[in-house]
TrEMBL record:
Taxonomic source organism: Fulvivirga sediminis
Regions crossing the membrane: none
Protein name: Acetyltransferase component of pyruvate dehydrogenase complex
UniProt keyword Transferase, yes or no: yes
Similarity comment text for this entry: Belongs to the 2-oxoacid dehydrogenase family.
Length: 550
C-alpha cells in the first residue's frame, strides 16, 4: 500500500522547507534509512530519510521549490501500484491515503463494535508508550531495540534507541519484569503515546491488556487511531527478527553509496574525530546508531593521533559543570508597551537612512571650560550640542519636519527632544524654542526635566511637541551608534563620546578630540544631500562654537 511522505518539521522554528536536491528519482527502489532528499530549513540543510521500503512512485516537489510543513512531497509504494486515486485526493485536499481510508470505512462497523471497555485489571503488566522527548516532537522512530521479547528488564534498563526530531535518545524501562510484546519494528515510526511494548509478569495475558488499551484510546479519541497496533501480531515475528537484523547490519551504505547513520551518531563521530565509514552499524539495515559510536575503538588511528599529540594516550578529564536554569517573567509596563509600539511603527514604516560624521571638539572643550567659569549652572557638552542643533535647524528648516501621510509639515518653531533613560524605559522631554534660549537656560531646563523624568513628575506638556530629537550615549563610553526616529520627527541625532584621536592639522599629525554623530533620517521627507548639508552646518558650529552665540 502506498505511503505518503510529507515535509517534516525539522526545527522548532521551521515553517517551510526547500528541496535543495533529490538524491533519488521516480522509479528508484528505496529502503528504510535511505536518504531521499536534502532539505533547506531556516537553520540548516538536513537530510530527509525514508522510513519505508518500496519504490518511489511520485515526486510532488521540484528541486529549489519551497513547501510548508506537512505538505506532500513524495509517495512510496509497491512497484507498478496505481496511485492515481491517491494523487487526485491529495490535489483536492483530501486525506493522506485513499486506500487506507477505504479500508478504515469498510472495517468501521467492526471497529465500532470492538470499542467497548475491557477489564484488564487482573493482568499484571504495563503498556509502554512513546514518550514526548522534546517540545516539538510529534512522533518517534525506533532506531534499534536493545531488548527482545522474553528478555528480563529492570527499572532503568535501556530498552530501545528512539530518533526524535532533534536527536537520538534512549528509552528506559520504568518497570521490572519480562518484555512480553514489541509493537513497533526497528525503522518504523509511531506517534507520541503510541504503543511500543508491554512489560510484565512472565506468562501474563498481554493481548487482553493490549485490547483494553486500544479500546480505551479509541473511545477517548473517537476510534481508529490505534489500528496499526491492533493489527500487529505479538511475538511470532520477533523470534526471527534478531537474525534478520544481523544480516542487514553487514553494510552501512546504500547501493548509491550514501551512509546510513542516525543524526546523533554522525554528530558523535564528528566530535570524536572518528571515520564513520569504518564503523559497522548494528541498527536496522546496517544503520549506524549511538551505541556503535560509543563501542567503536579506532585501532589503527589511535597510536598515530597519540604520537601527533605528543602524549602517552592519557585521557583528558573534562569536569562536569552543574548549574540551574532559571528565569523571571514580569508583566510589560504601559511605558514599555508604548515605547515598543511607537518605535516599531517608526522603524517599520519610516524608511530610515543614516549619515555619520566626525567632529573635532577641541575648540568646544576650550569654550565649555571658559563658559563654566561664568555660567550660573554647569554647561555640558550635551547642552552645547542641543544649542548647535537648534541653530543648524534654523538654517535647514526642511530637516525640522514631519511626515503626515498625504502632507509634509515643515515646523517653523524648534522644539528639541532630549532622550532620557529611566528605570522603566525611555522618556523624551522637550526643550521648547531651543534656538531662542541661551546655553545656561538650556542647561538649567535640561537638568530640571531630567530630574522630573527620574522622579516620574513629568507632565504631558513636558514630553509633547518635539520637532527634532537628540540621543546621547557618549557619557556611557559609546563611540558611535544609530537611533530609531522618534515620531512625529523626521530625524534623530545619535551622539557618541569624545575620544582622543590622531588628526592631521596644518600638515602635521597631532592629537585631537573627535566626536562622532549619526543622523537617522526618514527618506520620505529628508534626502541624503539635505541630511549631509545639515550635518556639515552642525560640524561647523561645534568646531567653532563662538558662532552659536552670534
Amino acid at each position: 500500500m502506498a505511503e505518503v511522505i510529507r515535509m517534516p518539521k525539522m526545527s522548532d522554528t521551521m515553517e517551510e522547507g526547500v528541496i535543495a536536491s533529490w538524491l533519488v528519482k521516480e522509479g528508484d527502489k528505496v529502503k528504510s534509512g535511505d536518504i531521499l532528499a536534502e532539505v533547506e530549513t531556516d537553520k540548516a540543510t538536513m537530510e530527509l530519510e525514508s522510513y519505508e521500503d518500496g519504490t518511489l512512485l511520485h515526486i510532488g516537489v521540484k528541486e529549489k521549490d519551497a513547501v510548508p510543513i506537512d505538505a506532500v512531497i513524495a509517495i512510496i509504494g509497491e512497484e507498478g501500484e496505481d496511485i492515481s486515486g491517491l494523487l487526485k485526493e491529495i490535489e483536492s485536499g483530501g486525506s493522506d491515503n485513499g486506500a487506507a481510508k477505504e479500508e478504515e470505512s469498510s472495517d468501521s462497523g467492526a471497529e465500532e463494535e470492538e470499542v467497548e471497555e475491557i477489564d484488564a485489571s487482573d493482568v499484571n503488566a504495563t503498556v509502554v508508550t512513546m514518550p514526548k522527548m522534546s517540545d516539538t516532537m510529534t512522533e518517534g522512530t525506533i532506531a534499534s531495540w536493545q531488548k527482545k521479547v522474553g528478555d528480563s528488564v529492570s527499572s532503568g534498563d535501556v530498552m530501545a534507541e528512539v530518533e526524535t526530531d532533534k536527536a537520538t535518545m534512549e528509552l528506559e524501562a520504568y518497570e521490572d519484569g519480562t518484555l512480553l510484546y514489541i509493537g513497533v519494528e526497528e525503522g518504523d515510526s509511531v506517534e507520541v503515546d503510541g504503543v511500543l511494548a508491554i512489560v510484565g509478569e512472565k506468562g501474563a495475558d498481554f493481548e487482553k491488556l493490549l485490547k483494553a488499551h486500544q479500546a480505551k484510546a479509541k473511545k477517548s479519541s473517537g476510534g481508529g487511531e490505534e489500528k496499526k497496533e491492533a493489527k500487529k501480531e505479538a511475538p511470532k515475528k520477533e523470534e526471527s527478527k534478531p537474525a534478520a537484523t544481523q544480516e542487514k547490519a553487514t553494510s552501512s551504505t546504500t547501493d548509491g553509496g550514501r551512509l546510513k547513520a542516525s543524526p546523533l551518531a554522525k554528530k558523535m563521530a564528528e566530535d570524536k574525530g572518528y571515520d564513520i565509514t569504518k564503523i559497522k552499524g548494528s541498527g536496522d539495515h546496517g544503520r549506524i546508531v549511538k551505541k556503535d559510536i560509543e563501542n567503536y575503538t579506532p585501532a589503527a588511528d589511535a597510536p598515530a593521533k597519540q604520537a601527533a599529540a605528543g602524549g602517552e594516550g592519557t585521557a583528558v578529564n573534562i569536569p562536569q559543570v552543574v548549574g540551574e536554569e532559571s528565569y523571571e517573567e514580569v508583566n510589560v509596563s504601559q511605558m514599555r508597551k508604548t515605547i515598543g509600539k511607537r518605535l516599531a511603527e517608526s522603524k517599520f514604516t519610516a524608511p530610515h537612512f543614516y549619515i555619520t560624521m566626525e567632529i573635532n571638539m577641541d575648540k568646544a572643550i576650550e569654550a565649555r571650560k571658559a563658559m563654566n567659569e561664568f555660567s550660573p549652572v554647569k554647561i555640558s557638552f550635551n547642552d552645547i550640542v542641543i544649542k548647535a542643533v537648534s541653530a543648524a535647524l534654523r538654517q535647514h528648516p526642511k530637516v525640522n519636519s514631519s511626515w503626515l501621510g498625504d502632507k509634509i509639515r515643515y515646523n517653523k518653531h524648534i522644539h528639541v527632544g532630549v532622550a532620557v533613560a529611566v528605570d522603566e524605559g525611555l522618556l523624551v522631554p522637550v526643550i521648547r524654542f531651543a534656538d531662542n534660549k541661551s546655553l545656561s537656560h538650556i542647561s538649567a531646563e535640561v537638568k530640571d526635566l531630567v530630574g522630573k523624568a527620574h522622579s516620574k513628575k513629568l507632565q504631558p506638556a513636558d514630553w509633547e511637541g518635539n520637532t527634532f530629537t537628540v540621543s546621547n550615549l557618549g557619557m556611557f563610553g559609546v563611540e558611535e551608534f544609530t537611533a530609531i526616529i522618534n515620531p512625529p520627527d523626521s530625524c534623530i541625532l545619535a551622539i557618541g563620546g569624545i575620544k582622543q584621536t590622531p588628526i592631521v592639522k596644518d600638515g602635521q599629525v597631532v592629537p585631537g578630540n573627535v566626536m562622532k554623530v549619526t543622523l537617522s533620517a526618514d527618506h520620505r521627507v529628508v534626502d541624503g544631500a539635505l541630511g549631509a548639508a545639515f550635518l556639515q552646518t552642525l560640524k561647523g558650529l561645534l568646531e567653532n562654537p563662538v558662532r552659536i552665540l552670534v
